[in-house]
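Chains adopt folds. We examine one example:
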Amino acid sequence: MTVLRNAAAGYRAAATAAGLDWPEPAAPPTAAPELVHRLFDVDHVAEQLTWLQSQGWDAERLLPGGGLTLPWPADGDALDDLSLSIGVPFPWRQQLPLFHFEYLFFTFVLAGDHEGEIWRYEIPPDTWDAVPAAPSLAALFSQWTRGIETGAVRLDPSSGWLMVGSGTGNDYDTIRELQELDPGLDPLAFPISMPNHPLLRARQAAAGVDTSCVTPERAPEIMEELMDEIAAVRGALGV
């Protein structure tokens, strides 16, 4: 928790120094709602996650790319996004959608050997790219802080949001821009579309993603099976 608090404070300091408006912290941490345990089939929720959810960040676009922190789920809709969890090396259900960007969302893995990791998913159709974005929340915030400090992430005066890259090229140009500015920046930690990028494919393989599943031939069928399973879970839970 100390590492996470320090990393979050560092990100907030860098973001406000860049010109981002930041709300005051919200209420002290409270336990995760009972619905979270039911939806994601876990008997505990990490303290770092309950702390983050208490900060009130879901009220503003405080993340790179104008991203949002999602609040605790109030219904079963959170499970629907998990139909993109194709080939992941952990039970698809045991992850909480936490951050939402324009065409990606990041999840927090709630249990098992991968507990605490942050995974990312691209929302556009025909994209089967489940992959780790960071080994922890602290590591993710540290990457975002580094991005601001190196100029890879900067405030867009027209929107008031922190944007990734110069915005003068496509996503692959932005990836190259980050790596040229600072080789220590991990493009996968940022909301950049990376379908079929070699870095993404290498990370998937290293993380244990079943890459035989993430193909145009197999992925649609697997996704359909996941959607059926999600519908059954929602029906059984009454959500």
